[in-house]
Amino acid sequence: MDNFKLKLRKRIWIIGSFTVVSFIASFVLIWNKIRQADSISHAKSFIGGLQIGIFMGIAILGLVFVVKYIKVLNQPVKLRELQIKENDERSLLITSQTTMLTMFIFFITMTIAIVVSGFYNQIVTITLFAVLVFVEITLFTCLALITKKYS
């Protein structure tokens, strides 16, 4: 149980750090958007709003998880329930299978999008291809690290 508490505290610090950085980034973007409100185009305004929304979403979600984990740390019964829930083999198998299916569908969809975008815009095609390569490198790196850890 002490190992799980330590793991949960580490998770709180990591999520909390991302939450603080996301809040700071959101406020900097909001301040910048207000400061340049008259001089930016509609496209830049849209992109700025999108960035603010992403950072605020990350910050709010992080805050929810930090509060949840802090509450769980102070209640031994809830802590035990969370530990059992996170280590349930059935749930881990379902998550693993869902992730693999999702990645397969993502790869197929990205490949189709790359082919279709090739007829319209070269920059979009190269960008989508770069994203696909980056995701594949990330996937295979994680697969190699996890395989090494458990073998």
Short description:
The chain is mainly alpha-helical and 151 residues long.
Q: What does this 3D model show about the protein?
A:
The protein has 151 residues and is mainly α. It is 89% helix and 0% strand. It has 5 helices and no strands. The chain has helices at 2-35, 42-73, 76-86, 89-117, 122-150. α1 runs antiparallel to α2 and α4 (89-117) packs antiparallel against α5. The chain is flat and about 55 Å long. The mean pLDDT is 88.
Spell out the key features of this protein.
mainly alpha; flat
Distance between the termini: 25 Å
Tally of helical runs:
5
The biggest sheet amounts to: none
Helix content: over 70%
By DSSP, the count of extended strands is 0
Topology pattern, helix = H, strand = E:
HHHHH
User: How big a fraction of the residues is strand?
Assistant: under 5%
- Overall geometry: flat
Low-confidence stretches: none
Indicate the structural class. Answer: mainly alpha
Mean pLDDT: 88
Please compute the radius of gyration using only Cα atoms.
21 Å
